[in-house]
Specification:
Largest sheet: 5 strands, antiparallel
Shape: globular
Number of strands: 7
Strand order of the largest sheet: 1-2-3-4-5
Mean pLDDT: 92
Distance between the termini: 37 Å
Radius of gyration: 15 Å
Helix content: 25-40%
Protein backbone atom coordinates (compact mmCIF):
# COMPACT_ATOMS: atom_id res chain seq x y z
CA UNK A 1 0.00 0.00 0.00
CA UNK A 2 1.34 3.43 -0.95
CA UNK A 3 0.70 6.98 0.21
CA UNK A 4 -1.39 7.40 -2.96
CA UNK A 5 -3.74 4.67 -1.69
CA UNK A 6 -4.08 6.41 1.68
CA UNK A 7 -4.69 9.95 0.42
CA UNK A 8 -6.89 11.60 -2.19
CA UNK A 9 -6.05 14.18 -4.82
CA UNK A 10 -7.94 17.43 -4.40
CA UNK A 11 -6.17 19.70 -6.87
CA UNK A 12 -9.43 20.08 -8.81
CA UNK A 13 -11.00 21.85 -5.80
CA UNK A 14 -10.46 25.32 -4.36
CA UNK A 15 -8.25 24.71 -1.34
CA UNK A 16 -9.61 27.80 0.44
CA UNK A 17 -13.22 26.55 0.19
CA UNK A 18 -13.05 22.81 0.96
CA UNK A 19 -13.31 23.36 4.71
CA UNK A 20 -15.61 26.39 4.76
CA UNK A 21 -18.09 24.52 6.98
CA UNK A 22 -15.29 23.86 9.53
CA UNK A 23 -14.09 27.48 9.95
CA UNK A 24 -15.98 27.65 13.28
CA UNK A 25 -13.47 25.05 14.60
CA UNK A 26 -10.26 25.50 12.61
CA UNK A 27 -10.34 29.28 12.04
CA UNK A 28 -9.48 31.05 8.81
CA UNK A 29 -5.71 30.53 8.93
CA UNK A 30 -5.59 26.78 8.31
CA UNK A 31 -5.60 25.35 4.80
CA UNK A 32 -5.76 21.70 3.72
CA UNK A 33 -2.49 20.21 2.51
CA UNK A 34 -3.30 16.48 2.55
CA UNK A 35 -6.65 14.70 2.52
CA UNK A 36 -6.64 11.19 3.92
CA UNK A 37 -8.70 8.62 2.05
CA UNK A 38 -10.33 7.85 5.42
CA UNK A 39 -11.94 11.31 5.52
CA UNK A 40 -9.62 13.36 7.73
CA UNK A 41 -7.45 16.27 6.63
CA UNK A 42 -4.03 17.64 7.48
CA UNK A 43 -3.96 21.43 7.75
CA UNK A 44 -1.17 23.96 7.57
CA UNK A 45 -1.44 27.15 9.60
CA UNK A 46 -0.66 30.12 7.34
CA UNK A 47 0.70 32.10 10.31
CA UNK A 48 3.27 29.72 11.82
CA UNK A 49 3.34 26.85 9.23
CA UNK A 50 2.51 24.27 11.90
CA UNK A 51 0.58 21.18 10.79
CA UNK A 52 -2.52 19.82 12.49
CA UNK A 53 -5.07 17.16 11.68
CA UNK A 54 -8.82 17.61 11.59
CA UNK A 55 -10.33 14.36 12.85
CA UNK A 56 -13.70 14.58 11.13
CA UNK A 57 -15.29 11.67 13.00
CA UNK A 58 -14.52 13.20 16.41
CA UNK A 59 -14.83 16.82 15.28
CA UNK A 60 -11.45 17.70 16.80
CA UNK A 61 -8.21 19.34 15.69
CA UNK A 62 -4.82 18.16 16.98
CA UNK A 63 -1.35 19.56 16.29
CA UNK A 64 0.99 16.97 14.72
CA UNK A 65 4.07 18.91 13.56
CA UNK A 66 5.72 22.27 14.02
CA UNK A 67 6.63 22.65 10.34
CA UNK A 68 6.03 21.17 6.92
CA UNK A 69 9.51 19.61 6.98
CA UNK A 70 8.71 17.87 10.27
CA UNK A 71 5.41 16.67 8.79
CA UNK A 72 7.20 15.22 5.71
CA UNK A 73 9.44 13.25 8.08
CA UNK A 74 6.38 11.92 9.92
CA UNK A 75 4.96 10.64 6.63
CA UNK A 76 7.94 8.27 6.42
CA UNK A 77 7.33 7.01 9.98
CA UNK A 78 5.39 3.73 9.79
CA UNK A 79 3.70 4.18 13.18
CA UNK A 80 2.52 7.70 12.30
CA UNK A 81 1.14 6.55 8.93
CA UNK A 82 -0.66 3.58 10.48
CA UNK A 83 -2.19 5.77 13.21
CA UNK A 84 -3.20 8.79 11.14
CA UNK A 85 -3.93 7.40 7.69
CA UNK A 86 -6.10 4.40 8.69
CA UNK A 87 -3.98 1.83 6.86
CA UNK A 88 -5.94 -1.17 8.16
CA UNK A 89 -9.33 0.34 7.34
CA UNK A 90 -8.28 1.39 3.83
CA UNK A 91 -6.83 -2.06 3.23
CA UNK A 92 -10.05 -3.71 4.37
CA UNK A 93 -12.15 -1.43 2.15
CA UNK A 94 -9.95 -2.14 -0.86
CA UNK A 95 -10.07 -5.90 -0.22
CA UNK A 96 -13.86 -5.65 -0.13
CA UNK A 97 -13.82 -3.81 -3.46
CA UNK A 98 -15.11 -0.58 -1.91
CA UNK A 99 -13.00 1.76 -4.01
CA UNK A 100 -12.82 5.51 -4.47
CA UNK A 101 -13.36 7.28 -7.77
CA UNK A 102 -11.76 10.62 -8.64
CA UNK A 103 -13.14 13.33 -6.33
CA UNK A 104 -14.26 10.91 -3.61
CA UNK A 105 -13.24 10.23 -0.02
CA UNK A 106 -14.43 7.59 2.44
CA UNK A 107 -17.17 8.90 4.71
CA UNK A 108 -19.54 7.54 7.33
CA UNK A 109 -23.09 6.67 6.29
CA UNK A 110 -24.13 7.53 9.84
CA UNK A 111 -21.52 9.83 11.42
CA UNK A 112 -20.12 8.87 14.83
CA UNK A 113 -21.38 12.19 16.22
CA UNK A 114 -24.89 10.83 15.55
CA UNK A 115 -24.17 7.39 16.98
CA UNK A 116 -22.63 5.78 13.90
CA UNK A 117 -20.05 3.07 14.42
CA UNK A 118 -16.46 2.82 13.19
CA UNK A 119 -17.15 -0.30 11.11
CA UNK A 120 -16.75 -1.04 7.40
CA UNK A 121 -20.50 -1.40 6.88
CA UNK A 122 -20.88 2.24 7.94
CA UNK A 123 -18.40 3.61 5.38
CA UNK A 124 -18.99 4.57 1.77
CA UNK A 125 -17.28 6.59 -0.98
CA UNK A 126 -18.60 10.17 -0.93
CA UNK A 127 -17.88 13.36 -2.85
CA UNK A 128 -15.06 15.25 -1.09
CA UNK A 129 -16.93 18.55 -0.81
CA UNK A 130 -20.13 16.86 0.39
CA UNK A 131 -18.17 14.93 3.03
CA UNK A 132 -16.56 18.00 4.57
CA UNK A 133 -19.64 20.19 4.25
CA UNK A 134 -22.09 17.81 5.92
CA UNK A 135 -19.72 16.72 8.69
CA UNK A 136 -18.72 20.31 9.44
CA UNK A 137 -22.34 21.42 9.66
CA UNK A 138 -23.30 18.45 11.86
CA UNK A 139 -20.48 18.99 14.32
CA UNK A 140 -21.24 22.72 14.53
CA UNK A 141 -24.91 22.03 15.31
CA UNK A 142 -24.25 19.46 18.03
CA UNK A 143 -21.09 20.89 19.65
CA UNK A 144 -22.97 22.60 22.47
CA UNK A 145 -25.50 19.84 23.15
CA UNK A 146 -25.08 17.85 26.35
CA UNK A 147 -23.64 14.38 25.74
CA UNK A 148 -26.37 11.82 25.13
CA UNK A 149 -28.91 14.34 23.81
CA UNK A 150 -31.22 12.46 21.43
CA UNK A 151 -31.29 13.76 17.85
CA UNK A 152 -34.53 12.76 16.20
CA UNK A 153 -34.48 14.67 12.91
CA UNK A 154 -31.89 15.95 10.45
CA UNK A 155 -32.57 18.05 7.38
CA UNK A 156 -29.89 18.44 4.72
CA UNK A 157 -30.34 21.33 2.33
CA UNK A 158 -28.24 23.25 -0.19
Amino acid sequence: MTLDDLTVNFTHLKREEILSDWVWLIGKNKLPILLTASGDVFLQDTNDNSISILDVGAGEVHNVAGSFEEFKELLSDKEFVVNYLAVDMIGDLMQNNILLNQGQIYSFKKPPVLGGEYILENIEPTDIEVHFSITGQLHKKVKDLPEGTPINDITISE
